[in-house]
Amino acid sequence: MDPLRLSAEPITAAAFAAYGEVIETGGQQHVLINEGKCKRFTDLATVDVVDGRAGLSLFQSDLRPLPYLCTLLERHPLGSQCFVPMSEATWLIIVAPDEDGAPGAISAFVARPGLAVNIARNTWHGVLAPVIGSGLFAVIDRIGNGANLEEHPLARPVLIDVPKAG
Amino acid sequence: MDPLRLSAEPITAAAFAAYGEVIETGGQQHVLINEGKCKRFTDLATVDVVDGRAGLSLFQSDLRPLPYLCTLLERHPLGSQCFVPMSEATWLIIVAPDEDGAPGAISAFVARPGLAVNIARNTWHGVLAPVIGSGLFAVIDRIGNGANLEEHPLARPVLIDVPKAG
Questions:
Q1: pTM here?
Q2: Distances from the Cα of B73 to the Cαs of B13, B125, B126, in angstroms?
Q3: Is B166 within the bounds of a domain?
């Protein structure tokens, strides 16, 4: 079967609200610290962990060529997963609502440099797919035993591209 | 009084062990995920929070010119503070051991791109001082009420420079 073609849209907090959080500095309340030389935007992610604790890990991913073929979604029933790029990265975030235990209609987003993204617990999502940058991400997610990974191969893969800016 | 002059040394886990953790991918055990396209280095930071919870914040700092004049150290009695650069950053980490409630001899480190640094609870340290990069950092630290900041102006400021690489 031909893959479904999708164009990734720029991620925004509003567009992504059903799937998690976009963590960014723009427009948020902040306090000035360090004699006015630093803005602190406090407590931006809902770290949601069941039966375990949150920890910090590093993911070193290969960059993915565009268009990107997504063949599988996964979800984590026991915890949210927050991705913090450690370079000025452009990366894809592929998500879907749940429909009776399987992914529904897929949406594709693209994150530009300066954003972190927290994928809510139990949200269907594609694997980390950086397009530009070092491929290095810090990840805040659940540390603990138990079954925290559910995978769903897509009956019809999705081919995702990113429109040129401007 | 003339400032004390210090040359920042490259940060390493061993050299920094008395003050906290260097979070990096090199040489650590990892698992391959995402069909072999991503290395996961799990649970690298000791998030140490008293009477509160850990949260994710963003710090948008000005870049600091070199040499950097450090006039004050601070510490957080109730929690560790982990700095994750969101660009390929070079930044200074200035620390000191505690001596009877005040900072002892100051050490200066420089972090190159690809490293995060977790400053241990109650460790004397300088404020965030990025030299190269976007100045944007994700910070995992304590969210909660109570007195979690102690500041100590330095009787003799410290002027820190970074040796040229190579």
A1: 0.96
A2: 21, 5, 5
A3: no
- Contacts of residue A60 in chain B, CB cutoff 8 Å? 25, 30, 38-39, 41
- The answer as to whether B35 is a domain residue is yes
Q: Which of chain B's residues have a Cβ under 8 Å away from the Cβ of A134?
A: 88, 113-114
Alpha carbons B142 and B51: distance in angstroms, whole number: 9
**Domain range for residue B118?**
4-161
Task: Tell me how far apart the alpha carbons of residues A19 and A35 are, in angstroms, rounded to a whole number.
Answer: 37
* Mean pLDDT across chain B: 96
Nearest residue to B32 via CA among A59, A133, A139, A57: A59
Question: Does the residue B107 lie in any domain?
Answer: yes
Q: Which two tokens stand for residue B65?
A: 């010119």
Q: Is B36's pLDDT higher than 70?
A: yes
B136 inside 8 A of chain A by CB: yes
Note the ipTM here.
0.96
Report yes or no: B24 and B13 within 8 Å, Cβ to Cβ.
yes
**Chain A partners of B140 at a C-beta cutoff of 8 Å?**
56, 140
Q: What is the CATH number of the domain that holds A96?
A: 2.60.120.480
Q: What sections of chain A are H helices per DSSP?
A: 13-16
Are B105 and B95 contacting, i.e. CB atoms less than 8 angstroms apart? no
Say how far apart CA A152 and CA A95 lie, in whole Å: 12
What is the pLDDT at residue B166? 54
Asked whether the predicted pLDDT for residue A85 surpasses 60, the reply is: yes
Q: Identify any residues that bridge with B107 across adjacent strands, giving them in sequence order.
A: B95
B34 touches chain A (CB under 8 A): yes
Q: How many domains does chain B have?
A: 1
Neighbours of A15 (CB within 10 A): 13
- By the 10 Å C-beta count (0-12 exposed, 13-18 middle, 19+ buried), B123 is classed as buried
CB pairs under 8 A between A and B: 149
A96-140: per-residue pLDDT in tens? Answer: 999 999 999 999 999 999 999 999 999 999 999 999 999 999 999
